[in-house]
Amino acid sequence: MTSSIYTASIPVFKQMLGGLKEVLRKAEAHAIDKKIDPNALLQARLFPDMFNLLRQVQVASDFAKSVSARLAGVDVPKMEDNEQTFAQLQTRIDTVLAFIGGLDVAKFDDAATREIITQAGTPKEKRFTGQSYLLNYGLPHFFFHATAAYAILRHNGVEVGKKDYLGTY
After folding, report:
1. The CATH number of the domain covering residues in 4-162
2. 30-60, pLDDT tens digit by residue?
3. Which of 38, 53, 154, 158 is deepest in the core (most CB within 10 A)?
4. Spatial CA neighbour of 129 closest among 107, 118, 113, 108
C-alpha cells in the first residue's frame, strides 16, 4: 500500500513543478516574442519587499526537494541558488523532479509520524510530525512561492492561465 504522505506530497510536487516549468517556458517565449530583456521578467517582483521571480522559483523548488527528502528520511540535496536564466531555472526544476521521482515509496511508510525538525539548534527551531510538516508547513510554503512566480509573470503580461499553473494531472 502506498503511504498517504507519499500520495499527498510527491505527485503534488511533480504536478505543480511541471506547471511551473510550462509557465517559465511561456515566459521565455513571451520575452523573445515581445523583444523584452529576459532579465526584466527574471528580476520582476510583485512588490519591492518580495522575492523576484528567480528567487520564487528557487524557493518553491527548495520546498519540493527538502520536504520530500525529510519525509523520506534522506539528506536534503544542496543546490547553489545561482540560476540567472530561464534555461537554468528549467534545469533546476528538472534536477528536483529527478530527485523526488527517485525517492523510494517505502521510505514514506512511517513519514506521518516521523519527527521533523527544521533549523535544528537555532532559536527558530520547529518540531513537527511528518503529517503536520507536510500539510501545515511544507505544502503551504511551496504553493505560496509557486503562486507568486505565476503571479509575477501574469502581472507582467505573460499569457498564462489556471491550466498552465496546475500542470498535468
Report:
1. 1.20.120.450
2. 999 999 999 999 999 999 999 999 999 999 9
3. 53
4. 113
